[in-house]
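Lecture notes, part 5. Sequence design as translation. It can be helpful to think of inverse folding as translation between two languages: the language of shapes and the language of residues. The source text, in structure tokens, appears below.
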């Protein structure tokens, strides 16, 4: 969204929430994106139900960098709660506890045949034998990363986050919250019914919705459904190896028709720890944790505090009382980030920003920590796409790890998976003036 910061980002960063009973027209400026993106609300948990797909086709006179598919279908993975999602959110914020898990996941609005409520209404994708289809898969689920596959059919990933990739032939994908993937599937099996399914990946001790959502890939014809309809063999919910084996395969096309420009001469280095900490509650007044305090996510031991007006508006009005420019560019204390924790588990709070000069070339290294409940973190940057140039386990070593960066064909994306007790390095050029947020999965930090 170049030169259009007023319509990008969560509440109190680039705009205030839309008041009840009013409306807001969003202006969207595309630049180099081509493929599948999505839009969603960004206030509290309204994203759970207020979202949709954005499809950007090749420009006139050009085509896909692969044979044009016979047909296409958008596949939206989402969370399903029996309760009011806003009440679930408000209850967790009030108590300081972990958020209640969802009651099911859905594919295009339906939990699928494994749930009684979807009897007769499970989503079906009719396909013609021998033809290839483009699935535009969006993970709109609030928290869980998901494995996805189709029984007895191989998948070919050809794009993610609005950018083409070198083809990845696979039996399953692992897609993180906020991510999109363009996937080809060829109807080359005996004409029948086959389940497509999605199940969660979680390698932490935090509670998660351990449910499987299904839809049906149905060959066009008068054949009867087999009993049982075959399910895909997806990896186990804690199969870290399967998740890593997939996520490390992504490469940009880096071709003459789809060139990339990986930043090389870095002018701003940022090391950013990502943790789930505790925030002090006076008089042990929060019921969500055993010690009476509440959970709070942090970056470099700073947890975001809502200002009274959004930061972009405050900046344009020279109202610097609403934020400070002292967000740390590195952890305030260095320790064994992924080992035994010998520092406080409590985080600081504030409305702090990092100031960048126009045109600065930024390398940002996310560092996972073992504070609290170590887990994977889906990380997203507003206002920019970026290149994922490196990732690894353990503590980032700024002397040796950059030697293994991929500066030839790294994926250009807007959402990545920060591995549990690991690191991920991204690069981008700060050429889009505005105020933008770094977000983790659903919430921002």
């Amino acid at each position: 969204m170049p030169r259009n910061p007023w319509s990008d980002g969560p509440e109190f960063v680039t705009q205030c929430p839309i008041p009840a009973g009013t409306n807001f027209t969003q202006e969207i400026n595309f630049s180099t994106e081509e493929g599948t993106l999505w839009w969603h609300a960004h206030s509290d948990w309204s994203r759970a139900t207020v979202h949709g797909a954005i499809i950007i086709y090749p420009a006139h006179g050009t085509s896909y960098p692969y044979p044009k598919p016979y047909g296409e279908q958008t596949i939206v993975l989402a969370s399903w709660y029996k309760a009011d999602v806003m009440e679930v959110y408000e209850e967790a914020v009030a108590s300081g506890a972990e958020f209640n898990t969802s009651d099911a996941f859905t594919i295009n609005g339906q939990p699928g045949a494994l749930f009684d409520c979807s009897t007769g209404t499970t989503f079906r994708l009719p396909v013609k034998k021998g033809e290839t289809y483009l699935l535009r898969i969006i993970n709109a689920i609030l928290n869980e990363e998901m494995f996805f596959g189709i029984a007895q059919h191989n998948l070919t990933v050809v794009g993610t986050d609005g950018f083409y990739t070198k083809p990845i032939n696979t039996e399953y994908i692992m897609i993180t919250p906020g991510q999109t993937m363009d996937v080809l599937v060829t109807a080359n099996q005996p004409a029948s019914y086959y389940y497509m399914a999605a199940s969660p990946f979680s390698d932490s001790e935090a509670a998660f919705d351990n449910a499987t959502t299904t839809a049906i890939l149905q060959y066009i014809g008068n054949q009867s459904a087999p009993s049982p309809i075959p399910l895909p063999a997806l990896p186990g919910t804690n199969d870290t190896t399967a998740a890593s084996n997939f996520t490390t395969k992504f490469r940009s096309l880096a071709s003459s028709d789809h060139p990339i420009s990986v930043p090389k001469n870095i002018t701003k280095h940022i090391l950013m720890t990502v943790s789930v900490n505790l925030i002090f509650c006076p008089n042990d007044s929060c019921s969500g944790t055993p010690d009476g305090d509440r959970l709070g996510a942090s970056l470099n031991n700073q947890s975001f505090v809502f200002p009274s007006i959004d930061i972009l508006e405050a900046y344009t009005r020279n109202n610097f009382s609403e934020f400070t420019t002292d967000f740390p560019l590195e952890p305030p204390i260095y320790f064994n980030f992924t080992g035994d924790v010998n520092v406080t588990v409590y985080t600081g709070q504030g409305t702090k920003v990092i100031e960048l000069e126009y045109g600065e070339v930024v390398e940002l290294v996310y560092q996972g920590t073992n504070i609290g409940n170590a887990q994977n973190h889906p990380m997203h940057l507003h206002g920019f796409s970026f290149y994922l140039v490196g990732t690894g386990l353990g503590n980032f070593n700024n002397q040796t790890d950059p030697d293994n960066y991929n500066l030839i064909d790294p994926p250009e994306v807007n959402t990545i998976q920060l591995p549990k007790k690991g690191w991920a390095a991204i690069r981008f050029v700060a050429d889009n003036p505005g105020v933008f947020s770094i977000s983790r999965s659903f919430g921002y930090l």
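The translated text above is only one of many valid answers, since several sequences can fold into similar shapes. The first helix runs from residue 85 to 95.
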